[in-house]
Amino acid sequence: MRTQLIAGNWKMNKTVSEAYDLAIALASRLGAVHKTEVALCPPFVSLTTVKSAIANTAIKLGAQNMHDQDQGAFTGEVSPLMLAGLADYVILGHSERRQHFGESDAFINHKVRAALKHGLQPILCIGETLEQNERGETEAVLQRQVHEDLAGIDPADATRIVIAYEPIWAIGTGRAATADDAQARCAYARQQLRGLFGGAADAIRIQYGGSVTAANARQILSQPDIDGALVGGASLKAEEFIAIVQSAKGSQ
Predict the structure, then answer these.
(1) What is the model's pLDDT at position 72?
(2) At what angle do helices 105-117 and 138-149 cross, to 10 degrees?
(3) Catalytic positions, please?
(4) What is d(CA 220, CA 150) in angstroms, rounded to the nearest whole number?
(5) What DSSP element (H or E) covers 106?
(6) Domain boundaries, the chain
(7) 5-251 has which CATH code?
(8) Residue 102: CB partners within 8 Å, gap ≥ 6?
(9) pLDDT recorded at residue 251
(10) Which residues are CB-neighbours of 43 under 8 A, at least 6 positions away?
(11) Is residue 249 predicted with pLDDT exceeding 90?
């Protein structure tokens, strides 16, 4: 049985002191949760602070992005070598990185490989725009992203990867996919993973992300091919995020 992963993507929010306070509040309530895996993904400047706040708890730490190179003249970037030993997870291919920073599938593929090389677990985001959805192109988009972002990955490493299906039209809009639609898309993504990795695909966790709240989490997380959630805005509110974690299969 796949352990559900509820990860909070704090995006560009919270000062270092605010991040510490939020992490402490979450650690006090979620620190002993084991049947559901919990990860916090604060901005880079707060990684060490949040790590100290969740020390000696079951909560994992994730970064929001990284470069594919270990070092070099890449001002403002953070390398996998810098994250190794600090973070457990790293979010890659988020639609905001693709849209605002022009990240291509080829570049994301290099990042996934680099993360695995350095012992980091990638949370690879995939998903379609509203226009692609309305044109009936969702499956074609997911197929392309899965195959190009994971090209050349050894099946032995595949189970260390987490896929996050995030329909772009649902991110931060308050308009989540229905549980049935989310399940259908995650099941399709798993089908594509089977084409790449065979039976190992059944052990790969697939999250849903996009306006996940305490109100809709239980229905979404109860679906057979949904193995957790990548939570944005709701992860910035302690009680809301705690309620989402409590909605996970392992907490029911």
Answers:
(1) 98
(2) 40
(3) 94, 166
(4) 25
(5) helix 105-117
(6) 5-251
(7) 3.20.20.70
(8) none
(9) 64
(10) 10, 11, 12, 13, 14, 19, 64
(11) no
